[in-house]
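hey m, so remember when u said the tokens were messed up on ur end? i reran from scratch. heres the input so u can diff it against urs
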Amino acid sequence: MDTPKSKKMELVIPAYRMHSQSFMNVLDGISEEDALKRIENKTNHIVWMAGNFVNMRYGLGWVLGLRAEDPYSDLFFQGKALDESFKYPTLTELKENFHSISAKVYQKLHEVTDEELDEIFEIGMNIPFIKETKLNFVGMCIGREDYLCGQIGLMRRILNYPGMKYDVDENLKY
């Protein structure tokens, strides 16, 4: 399964795998208590950021034909605003959910064809220079994951955790 059906995925797959590594690294050592802290009630908390990251994986899988449902979709779908009256899952629960979906999406990234990637996938952005295709949605998901890891990395430092390490877990194959 090393070679994807679509050569277009040869750029995406390494980024996806590195984001998996970064996601685990950026959450490493963060306590459940700190993961719910906000800065001056202006920021999202780390749980929300991590949940949105995992929800992006579900969205990516959905666009590629995977019909898995995010059990926390009602909290995170389309970047739904943080609502402190909701009970959010723990980081531990989100990590389990992350591992469950990420391996399946990784397989789909290998199976998708150029024809499928070229299909129109309207998301209503109405930006003239972005053709709303499945391929461009994949790219936007990768960009969103980068953004969220950066936000969590910043929160790490604000909460007095050391900066994220760039260690690679060779057992994380997705």
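this time it looks ok to me. The helical segments are 9-27, 46-63, 73-76, 91-111, 114-117, 134-158. if urs says something different then somethings off w ur setup not the seq
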